[in-house]
Each structure stands twice: as structure tokens, then as C-alpha cells.
Amino acid sequence: MSPQKNKAKPLNRKTILLALSGSIALYKSCDLLRNLKEAGAEVHCVMTAGAQKFISALTFQALSGHPVHTDPFDQNGDWAVLHTTLADKADLILVSPASANLIARMAGGMANDLVTSVVLASRAKVLLVPAMNDHMYTHPITQDNLKRLKQIGYQVVEPIEGELVCGRHSVGHIAENETIIKKVITVLK
């Protein structure tokens, strides 16, 4: 047997709701999902409309092995209130990538799509992984929104300096998956 199979999985028996928002950094979430599963987590995905413009829900369904939820009014045959069912299922809501738009809506207490409705209805821990243009990230409104969310107990994996899609090398680049996984493990201990 390989050493990997004998190794204890730090996220065993943990359910993570991976909330995906519209950002070019979304491509890294495919590997993040795989890393979470390798660490033993059960991962369910919820996507904003913006996220679906970057990567199809089908990709995340194939990687997670579960249906991906995108529509708060989806009628899947079962009678269940989708946003509260998902909210109650999660040990952690991991918002990666967290766009400026989604952070602002969360800070304002909005519930105008499935992701924000689930976050608002949940009592699970929330971990944000911002990824955006440097001017958007450093803007006082975004910083105030992040401060507000931190004050209510949300945790953040800060973005790093890196190559941004606009061509600048600056802060706003999504943190490395290894850093995100370490923080997830820490938050769930």
C-alpha cells in the first residue's frame, strides 16, 4: 500500500460547501476541489451566475461527484428548501474565489442568489479567498467589506502578489491552493 493511503486524512468526515464566484481565478478551484477531496472532505459546489461564465457547472460536478447548485429555484423533484438544506449540510463554506462583487453582497447581508442565500442561512464557518484586480482589492469599499465580514467571524486567506489578468504584477492574485488547504484544516480543527 502506498504511504498516501495509510496517511490520516485531515478533513475526513468534513463537508465543505465550495462557493464559486466569477473570477478568472476560478480555474484554480478545479485543483482546489481535488485537493479537498484528497484530504478526505466531501465537497458540494454552489456557483454564482458569474462563475458559470468562466467554467461550466458540469466540470465541478464531475470533479466533486455531486450535483452543482446554481439556481435557488431549482425543482429537483424533492421538496426541500435548497438554500437551507445546503446551509445545514456544511461544516465550512469556502468561498474561492471570492470576487469583489460577492464580498460586497455578503457584507451587505444580501440574499439575491443561491450563494448569498446559503451563506446568510448557514451557521457554518466561512472562509473567503479573495481574487480580483489590485485596484478593486485595495479599494476602501472592498477593504471595509472585508473588515465587516471579519468582525462577524468570517476568516480570510489574503490574496498574494502575482500576475493579474490586466497585466500588472500586484496584490489580488488568489492564494496558492496549499495555503488555502492549510487554512481550511486549521479552521476546522
Automatic annotation (TrEMBL):
Pfam families assigned to the protein according to its UniProt record, in alphabetical order: Flavoprotein
Top-rank lineage group of the source organism: Bacteria
Record Gene3D superfamilies: Flavin prenyltransferase-like
Residues of the signal peptide: none
Listed GO biological process terms: coenzyme A biosynthetic process
An example Gene Ontology molecular-function term: phosphopantothenoylcysteine decarboxylase activity
Chain ranges of the Flavoprotein domain: 14-186
GO terms for cellular component: phosphopantothenoylcysteine decarboxylase complex
Protein name: Flavoprotein domain-containing protein
Organism classification: Bacteria, Pseudomonadati, Candidatus Omnitrophota, Candidatus Abzuiibacterium
